Amino acid sequence: MNKNLFRLVIVLMSISLIGIIAVQGYLINVSFKNKEEQFKYQVKQVIDNVAREVEEQEAFSFLSRFSKIKDSIGKAPERSELMKFFYVEKNELTNQTIIYSNSIIPEDYSVSSSFFDKNNDSTRIKNYVAKRVTEVYNEATMNDQNMGGQVTPTERIERSGVVEVLDKANFELNFKDIAATRQVTQRVTNEQLQFLFATELKALGINTPFEFGVYNNGLATKVRSESFKYDKKNTYDTPLFTDNDGVSRYQLLLSFPKKKVFLASDFIGIAMLAFLFTSIIIVAYYSALKQLNTQRHISQIKTDFINNMTHEFKTPIATINLALDAIKNPKVIDDKEKVQRYLQMIKDENKRMHAQVENVLRISKLERKELDIKKENHNVHDMLEEAIEHVSLIVEDREGSVKTNLKASKTTALVSDIHFTNVLVNVLENAVKYSVEAPEIEVSTENVKNFIVIKIKDNGIGISKASQKKIFDKFYREHTGDIHNVKGHGLGLAYVKRIIDDHHGEVMVESDKGKGSTFIIKIPTIV
């Protein structure tokens, strides 16, 4: 995949993922705010209803006591009429005259001062009574009145009763003024508020702990729940006990300590599902991105591998072609010594290509676990000396040296003679190959518990920290600018890793760029 296209795909996928998460977060946030507004509206209804019910219960309590006292005492003599209304009508069909009158008369009651918690001996309370009289006069009766006689109505209907409107207005005026003189603890109780709030909240489905309190001009009173604390964000208030002037000294407050938990409870299920699906999308996105990157990386490695393999085959093929052309030359074909020399060159180059192909096939068989590895007891030090002997000519050719420091006392291990020797040779050849100057190689051994540890240190170009995690991957080669600067195709260390793993051992590298590398091979010994 083209690098720019790959980056574009990553950017688009990332934007889509971030967009999905942002939209989900926005929708949940909007839903939460709507729920909070609904909650605020319902709580306002609740607190207003409770305040009204408290005032009504107080008024009803006063009215009940007042009615009982009024019925138990006598009223004072009636005073003059407060207002009188007359209405006269003549019925032409019956020749009757109808006179209707309505008088409003105040009645005074002397009520004990203990009822109002005052210091006076008694207090006078007015009660307004309406007297309604209907009189019917015949025409003859009216004629007698004209002649100076006494008029007696043919029919008289008299009714009396309390004027409820005036009586109620008068009671409310008196009641509010009197109630204002009482302490708030005499007007409302904690139990009363607890019951009213619980009832109202339950009716609206608000099932969350609440606290309440009554404040007097911003100061706390004794009417409050045990754990009530004023919190501006979670506390709602409304006026309580409004007087005749529409002013209230008291505020009824209601708070919800676990308001956010209650509001969020409706969204926990949706939020969990959104989180679950988002997590799945993120995992799928990460996996897809990792797979894309891996495939791109493998593609690049394979391209490098093919280029290297092509280069490795190109030289032997060219050498073989030149040798064949030389043999065909009439001057050479009769010279047996030259012919033999060119045939040996062809054989050597063919062997070289065969070795490279075998290396690739060996790795494939290792991955499929088809490679037959026979293990026997061998002395690791002997195998090390054999491997060093194998590379000694190359080292001497480059004017280098190999120093040994074999301190391990337990040196017998169950290993494959061929493959383990190949591992040691491979690491030693890399030490020579990646040394810019004359190679200086140090080989040492030691025992750690039931293991023998082999360290091969060089003075080469070193390996970067990023590449140290990848050098044992198949086809991987650290780039040095020119990929043909050092011949190979990235299979050597992959082969080393798989052989050591098959021997139940470990292989690792310690290196700093430009300061050389130390390869550490650790395999179990036979006790």
Can you tell me about this structure?
The chain is of the alpha+beta class and 527 residues long. The chain contains 13 helices and 15 strands. The protein has helices at 3-72, 139-146, 164-179, 184-187, 190-203, 259-265, 268-328, 330-333, 336-367, 380-397, 417-433, 465-468, 492-502; strands at 83-91, 96-112, 122-137, 155-162, 211-216, 219-224, 235-240, 250-255, 376-379, 401-406, 412-415, 440-448, 451-457, 506-511, 517-524. The strands form 4 sheets. Strands 10-12-13-15-14 form a 5-stranded mixed beta sheet, with helices on one face. It has a 4-stranded antiparallel beta sheet with strand order 1-2-3-4. It has a 4-stranded antiparallel beta sheet with strand order 6-5-8-7, with helices on one face. It is rod-shaped.
